[in-house]
Design goal:
alpha+beta, eight-stranded antiparallel β-barrel, about 25% strand
Length: about 230
Amino acid sequence: MLKVHAFLVKLPHLTDAAFFAHWRHPHGTLTRRIPQFRRYVQNHGVAPSPAVPGLAAGPWLGMPAIWLDGPGDLAKARSHPAYALLDADADAFYDRTALDWLVGRETIYIPHAGGANSAPVKVMLLLRRSRAPLTPRRVRVLADSMASLLPGLTGISITLPVDTKAAAPCDAVMELSFPDLAAYSAAWGNGARICPVIADVADLAASKGLLVREERVIWPDGEREGISHECTST
């Protein structure tokens, strides 16, 4: 299964509230018409820059993620009759010229808790490699460290790109889920304990962080819906 991350910069004339409202509807509603989208979430930025202490913030206000069965489903989704409406609607709320993508495969270290109505707070870490590549083994070490350093985590996943030569704003996306802002704040603090651990694996100065609230738009219940991931437990 593929996981596609997009990185959205809102149009400058919109307020944050207007951006989020349009993204939810009609844009989020339109995604439900694309059968190849097996799962879809909207990650709405919830704090001003810098959102995550110890890390620089990028220009993005939103980071959606779409799951598809495989590479061929990207082309199938784009050829679906409903996709033209979805694509045209993008011009109403985000800057298409600033749009970035990362197409990858996700490994879940701690399954994301909650069902379709869950709205966890997440730290989105956009990791840049240092001298050594961000291999599955290296990111597993980072995931294990995060699990031990951050009490109250309800989810850890890392997406590595399927094409390391493709242009993307990062070399991996790590998502750390918490039940609410209070749990995040208590665990993360000023980042002094966590950032050195990130720096052991990635280029901290070139990496980015954003605090978001996840809104689940397409979130099937369980494996019977065809959602499967490579899972390893910490």
